Amino acid sequence: MLPESMTVEEAIFTRRTCRRFRKDPVPDDVVQKIIDAARYAPSSCNLQLWDFVRVEDEAAKARVAEETRYIQLAPVSIFVAYGNNYTRENYAWVQSAAAAIQNMMLMAHSLGVASCWVDTLGDVERLRRILELPSEREILALVLFGYPELVPKAPRRRDIDILLHYDRYKGRLNWPSSDDPDEWSLEQIRDFQMAKIRNGARYNKPVPSERDAVLAALRQFVRVDEARWLDVLPLTGLYTEEIAKAYPRARLTFAEMTDQVFEFVHDRAPRPLRHERYPEAFYGGDGGFDVMSLIFRLEGFPRGERRRMLSAMRERIQDDGQLFLAFVNRRSYHRPLRWLRGRVGHAGVEYALAPDPSLGPFKAVTPAEVRQDLRAAGWRVRASRHFFAVPPADEIEFRAGRKGGKVKMAGQTLTRVSQMLRPLDGALGPLARIHAWDVIPA
Ligand SMILES: Cc1cc2nc3c(=O)[nH]c(=O)nc-3n(C[C@H](O)[C@H](O)[C@H](O)COP(=O)(O)O)c2cc1C
Asked: Does the CB atom of residue 260 touch ligand 1 within 6 A?
């Protein structure tokens, strides 16, 4: 017998994306009811060109998992496909499929079954072959269902008065489509980060070679014990976590912009940290810090803000203190690679963290402009290291990995070339992608 369902209103306001499911199976009649709800969604011209492929066979699951590991998370996984051959206008096929997916998720929730809508699918052409879908059936999403082990808290919603317009667009807080931070206001950056942070999701880690390089430089430059340490804008807290581990007696504070990021960093940290809100508490906050760190964050802010930030940091550090700074150098393979990504993949604002930590706008900087900004703010560079004049193999693998055959092959060739060039890495310093600097008050 089916469990009792809840009201539509309750279902809409209490549904959550679940990413940790129990293993218990979902009874067939419940799954049937979920699919039935999909059938009753509106569709463009009532064509109902959807297909739902439930993947149960373990061998098929294993093949799908090579493209999207999400399939391993839940007992029920259903691919949603829609015919694209009659309904291209205004993306009507996407709209129709999305309506069905939402119906399924609300019905599931009202029956006590949690769900996750997944668009991280890897190579959809390969998935189409695995699922034997014809070429006009477009795969839109994988939807997972199961009984929840952990239901995340509701991510904050943008306020109605930001989203709702009367008669004409009022233009507030629209995000630029450029990823150049000079086109973003602080308020927009904050708002974007807030919206992008997924509850319960852990960000991708940076490629290990990058993390190891940064940490090696950190340990070489910063040799302190009980220092007062301010980690500026750590974003996901990935390096904050590493700092907390490598300097167990340091008294760490971090400055960030939103509650979502506060939670994120606190979750990662192995011990309680202090935090302060950027920019409100950061500017004019207490002085007396022995160490500060600013790791891959200059790239995310408009130049004027970067200068202001560095000046405020200078005011808050002890005269014998030090700043550990790491950044991505624009005069490196970063730039051609970005250009290429715009052609092969997506152009525009990305939020995937690795390997460029870019939750929001991101523009690599040049060593000359960083030097200038530091000097203007009263800092000087005492020592520097650089890494990766040629891309490390794990970065190439990361970037090429999920893009399908041709890109993968190009990636493998590039790996061989870059391994041949590796001995030149030291000599090509100014062209290295990552710079780590030891900076002190001038
Ligand atoms: C089109 C679409 C694609 C999504 N893809 C993913 C995904 O690949 N992985 C994931 O964990 N969540 C994914 N989600 C879930 C969103 O992250 C989630 O809906 C959002 O954070 C709001 O949380 P809530 O669903 O609990 O309200 C997707 C949602 C939509 C609508």
From this structure: no
